Amino acid sequence: MTSLDRPENTAEIPTFGLWYDLRNPQRWRRPIGALYRESVDQVVWAESLGFGSAWLSEHHFAEDDYSSSPLTVAAAIGARTSRIRIGTNIIVAGLHEPMRLAEDATALSFLTDNRFELGLGLGYHEMEFAAFGRRVKQRPSLLEDAIAVIRHAWAGSGEAYEGKRFAVPALPVTPIPETPPRLLIGAQSPVGIDRAARLADGVITLQNAHFAHYRDAVARHDKDAGASRIYASQWVVVAEDPEKVWSEIGEHALYQMNKYIEWGSFEGPDQPSSFDNPQHLLDAGAYRLMDASMAVDELVSMATEFPEIKDFHYWAQLPGESLDSGSARIQYMADEVIPRVTAALSSRVD
After folding, report:
1. Residues linked to residue 20 through DSSP beta bridges, in sequence order
2. For site-directed labelling of 344, which of 107, 135, 158, 327 has its Cα 20 to 30 A away?
3. Is 46 helix (H, G, I), strand (E, B) or coil?
C-alpha cells in the first residue's frame, strides 16, 4: 500500500517498529561500519517478520558516535525494503537548512514509494546548537519556521516566504513530492504536544501518559480527530524472561538514560538526576519489563482507548548491546506479541 491509498480512518491496526540510534559507546565499542550495515540487515529481516516501521534518531559530536546522518540511513533502508515505513524520531529541525530537509525528504519519498515520514523536534543539547551557529533558546521559532518552510517548499508555489528565522526566495523548490510525506513532531511537554496538534500531521510521544494530552490538544485546535496520529515510543523490554534479560542489558539502559540526562534531554522542575544502577531505572518507571501476555494486554488496551495510535516502536537494541541480543527480542515480539495484538484489534474493528 502506498500513501496514495493509505487509510486515514481511526480503525487502522497499529504497526510495530524498531528504533535506532546506532550508538557505539567506548565501553562496548565494535567496528562501527559493521554496526551500520548489520543494523540495516536487521531491519530487512524484521520486515519479513511483520514489523512495519523503522525509526532513526539524530545527534551530533557525540563521543559514542550517536547517529548523525539519519536521512542517509533511511535511504539505505528504503533501498532494501518494500513495505516497512521509515521515519525520523527525531531530526533536530533547528540544526538544518529547512529547504534542504524538504528536498531530501522528497527524494526519500520518491525512492521509497511514499514510505518516508519526517519527524522533527526542538532538540536540547546546547553544544550542538552552538556548533551549528544556532542559539538553543531560539529552538521553538527555529522549529516552527522550519515547518513553515518545508510545507511551503512541498507546495511548489514559487512564492517568497519570510519567517522569523528562515526565508525562502521567490523560486520554486523542485521537484515537489507526489504525495507530501507526513510531517510529525516529537514532543514531551504540554507546549510541544500542543504544537504537534497545531502544526503537524501527528505526534511522536515519549510517554504513554501523553496520549490524552494530544487528543485534548487536537480538540482544542478544532482539528479532525479522525486524521490525528500518535506514534508511540515505548521504553519497555519485552521478553519471555524479562528479568533475566534485564540482568544482561540493564547496564546498557543505564548508560543510555544517564547520557540523555547529561545532555539536557529532560527539562523542568521534575527532571531526574543521574541513576545509580539499573534497578533505579525500573523503580522510577524509566523502563518497564514485560512478557508477551503483559505486553499484549497493555497494547490492545491502549490501541482500543486511543485509536489515534498508528505505531508502537521499541529500541532495536540499547547502546552497546549486541545485535544478536536485540534480535532475540525482535523474534519474540514477532512470534508472541505482534500477531496476538493484531488479531485482537482486528476482531474489534470487524
Report:
1. 56
2. 327
3. helix
Please give the grid coordinates belonging to residue 31. Answer: 567496528
User: What φ, ψ does residue 57 adopt, rounded to 5°?
Assistant: -100, 170
Q: State the Cα–Cα distance between residues 107 and 91, nearest whole angstrom.
A: 16
Query: Quick check: 189 and 174 in contact, CB under 8 A?
Result: no
For 252-302, the pLDDT digits (tens) are 999 999 999 999 887 655 667 789 999 999 999 999 999 999 999 999 999
| Cell numbers found for residue 341 | 495484538
**Cα angle 124, 125, 127; round to 5:** 145
Query: Is the predicted pLDDT of residue 8 greater than 50, yes or no?
Result: no
Which DSSP letter does residue 346 get? H
* Dist. CA 343–CA 275, nearest whole Å: 39
Cβ–Cβ under 8 Å, residues 199 and 192: no
User: Where do we find the cell 514531551?
Assistant: 188
| Number of residues in the chain | 350
Q: pTM for the complete prediction?
A: 0.94
Start-to-end Cα distance in the chain: 20
Q: Hey, what CATH class is 15-246+286-349 in?
A: alpha beta
* Cell numbers standing for residue 64: 559514542
SS3 at position 268: coil
Dihedral sign from CA coordinates of 81, 87, 88, 89: negative
Backbone angles phi, psi at 86, to 5 degrees: -125, 130
Spell out a b/e string for 86-120, using b for 16 or more CB atoms within 10 Å of the CB, else e.
Answer: bbbbbbbbbbbebbebbbbbbebbeebbbbbbbbb
Q: E-strand spans in the chain?
A: 15-20, 53-56, 85-88, 91-92, 116-121, 161-162, 167-168, 183-187, 202-205, 230-234, 236-238, 288-290, 309-315
- Separation of alpha carbons 319 and 315, rounded Å: 9
- Rounded to whole angstroms, the Cα distance separating 332 from 316 reads 12
Q: Where are the domains of the chain?
A: 15-246+286-349
Query: Which set of grid coordinates corresponds to residue 229?
Result: 496520529
- Please state, in angstroms and rounded to a whole number, the distance separating the CA atoms of residues 135 and 128: 9
